[in-house]
Amino acid sequence: MERFTTHTGVGAPLRRSNVDTDQIIPAVYLKRVTRTGFEDGLFAAWRNDPEFVLNQDAYRNATVLVAGPDFGTGSSREHAVWALQNYGFKVVISPRFGDIFRGNSGKAGLLAAQVDDKVVTALWEYLEANPGAPVTVDLEARTVSAGEGLDRIEDSFTIDDYTRWRLLEGLDDIAITLSHADEIAAYEAARPSFKPATL
Amino acid sequence: MPKTLAEKIWDDHVVRQAEGEPDLLFIDLHLIHEVTSPQAFDGLRLSGRTVRRPDLTLATEDHNIPTTDLDKPIADPVSRTQVETLRRNAEEFGVRLHPMGDIDQGIVHVVGPQLGLTQPGMTIVCGDSHTSTHGAFGSIAFGIGTSEVEHVLATQTLPQAKPKMMAVEVTGELPAGSTAKDLILALIAQETTGGGQGYIVEYRGEAIRKLSMEERMTICNMSIEWGAKAGLIAPDETTFEYIKGRAHAPAGDEWDAAVAYWKGLVTDEGATFDKVVTLDASAVTPFVTWGTNPGQGVPLSERVPDPASFEDPIEREAAENALRYMGLEAGTPMRDIAVDTVFIGSCTNGRISDLRRAAELIKGRKVAENTRVLVVPGSVRVRLQAEEEGLDVIFKEAGAEWRGAGCSMCLGMNPDQLTPGERSASTSNRNFEGRQGKGGRTHLVSPDVAVATGVLGHLASPADLDKAGV
């Protein structure tokens, strides 16, 4: 996984709440057996609408998505994270994320930055008034910022310490866990024999 | 110190605990299906890793499986590739697989309990959010993403931050004519789709104790629909009775040892929850959704709400968007909504007791002229059991379609999909935009409401059938 420290890129205001993972990528697009190529299915139903934010030239190359509360609820499909990454997104900002989506983001290297409702509203207004304007997300300082002077928005975001550390270091979870293989083996040796087995 | 049920199970599975790290949990059972596993197996291959515990892993095919022409290869080449990839991976890594055509094939969350692999006090994961279903047995069961699938395959553990604990106290008794599905839909509407976020919830109380095992699975299945990490119910005699004698149930002395352990799996007197919510079961009536998330629901007796009635601006906008998508007008009585397709099935309501109840209601009645009813058993064994009891004949005589087992129209990855604008009453779990097919409009309902709707052609309850004299 690549290290994530700070990122500055075009912000896209997605004025929607409850963007579930079926809306991020519908099930019919989940049939690939690779981790790439899912950008075709990203927000598939909305991409036909010329008014949709990512269909507007100024936001087409956005890398920071600013969404309403309960982003990524529903299905566990990590394809939702891959679709966002395959399209080019590095960060999603929302007041609240679906648990599984947030976990998947941390594993795959997409930063899910949780902020106050009012920060999202301020970013929406700023990005709509200044199409194509950049947003900066600093993982070390845990801040999101955009604009200058009177328009300046700067606030902190929430992310758990462990995920932040892993993203900053670009660490592979499995390698970390396998370094504790002796502890896993000790646990296994003490498991009750009545626990079921499939083989 | 007194502990909650979930804390007991959690603590019994901690492999490693260290300051500043999430707990490393041992996973007792890892269920796998074709959609969320190919990239995980690929990851293992790329890093030269193996499956640590194939004996705690089980795979089946469900999401892409067609429910007609079962004797032919899967027509959609992309679906076929995904299924074939699972077969190759299972073979290569030594994982037991129940493929199409096998008697134990079916929806992964129907298959686990059916085989007796789902037992109290376990940690169960699967790359599918409805893994919460297994919590009905008093286990911590939750959905994971593909990176986590790879992690469990390689290590049989998962690093997890301990969630907060919530109790859902369900008081009173469900009235006749109301079902477990109505209860959970009413709870989600009360708590909203984000209400359970960050919590493991324990469903408790008189109404829960009286539910059958399969009704409890319906409740726990939809825990994720209000954002909970997992949902569970303390095991009791109902649970033990359900497990006993199944293929992977413990036997002899092992059974006694298991039951002794299971009996301790209750929330201790004096244990504290971070949050408690209550629901009066005796006030639950048939419940249906009007919008595009499972929290947007009302009793069937009510009307489509007016978005202006929502104080929160975000909820108001969500309601406006939902009504536009659903093609509904505020103030329309829910019962006036005409339905094109009825879907009975899924991991929420595709078990034998659901089909028995539906068959009993539809017996001697006819599906409405402009409506189609699809009945999709949750597994091959459910289908065979239903056929042995003659339920398939009852459905077919009523004009419903009797299909093969799988996820089917719950998410439309196979050919069972709604067309744009088509409206369904569905016993599944999600009414998201496009969930059952692009442009499709979904109302979530119980099997009872599904049958009555299929017969009358508009959203209805069994009581309406009697009133209509059909």
UniProtKB/TrEMBL annotation, chain A:
Family to which the UniProt record says this protein belongs: Belongs to the LeuD family. LeuD type 1 subfamily.
Domain (Aconitase A/isopropylmalate dehydratase small subunit swivel): residue spans on this chain: 1-115
Pfam family, one: Aconitase_C
Record's subunit section: Heterodimer of LeuC and LeuD.
Catalysed reactions listed for this entry: (2R,3S)-3-isopropylmalate = (2S)-2-isopropylmalate
Enzyme Commission no: 4.2.1.33
Molecular-function GO terms, alphabetical: 3-isopropylmalate dehydratase activity
Function of the protein: Catalyzes the isomerization between 2-isopropylmalate and 3-isopropylmalate, via the formation of 2-isopropylmaleate.
UniProt KW Lyase keyword: yes
Gene Ontology process terms (BP): L-leucine biosynthetic process
InterPro entries documented for this protein: 3-IsopropMal_deHydase_ssu, Aconitase/3IPM_dehydase_swvl, AconitaseA/IPMdHydase_ssu_swvl, IPMI_Swivel, LeuD
Protein name as annotated: 3-isopropylmalate dehydratase small subunit
Spans through the membrane: none
NCBIfam families xref list: leuD, PRK01641.1
Alphabetical keyword list: Amino-acid biosynthesis, Branched-chain amino acid biosynthesis, Leucine biosynthesis, Lyase
HAMAP family reported for this sequence: LeuD_type1 (MF_01031)
GO cellular component, one term: 3-isopropylmalate dehydratase complex
Entry keyword annotation includes Amino-acid biosynthesis: yes
Pathway listed: Amino-acid biosynthesis; L-leucine biosynthesis; L-leucine from 3-methyl-2-oxobutanoate: step 2/4
TrEMBL record, chain B:
CDD domains: IPMI (cd01583)
The protein's annotated pathway: Amino-acid biosynthesis; L-leucine biosynthesis; L-leucine from 3-methyl-2-oxobutanoate: step 2/4
Cofactor annotation: [4Fe-4S] cluster
An example Gene Ontology molecular-function term: 3-isopropylmalate dehydratase activity
Top-rank EC class of the record's enzyme: lyase
Cofactor binding note from Swiss-Prot or TrEMBL: Binds 1 [4Fe-4S] cluster per subunit.
Domain of life: Bacteria
EC code: 4.2.1.33
Region annotation Disordered: where it falls in the sequence: 417-443
Reactions this protein catalyses: (2R,3S)-3-isopropylmalate = (2S)-2-isopropylmalate
PROSITE patterns: ACONITASE_1, ACONITASE_2
Subunit structure: Heterodimer of LeuC and LeuD.
Function according to Swiss-Prot or TrEMBL: Catalyzes the isomerization between 2-isopropylmalate and 3-isopropylmalate, via the formation of 2-isopropylmaleate.
Family according to the record: Belongs to the aconitase/IPM isomerase family. LeuC type 1 subfamily.
NCBIfam families (alphabetical): leuC, PRK05478.1, PRK12466.1
UniProt-recorded name of the protein: 3-isopropylmalate dehydratase large subunit
Organism listed in the record: Aeromicrobium camelliae
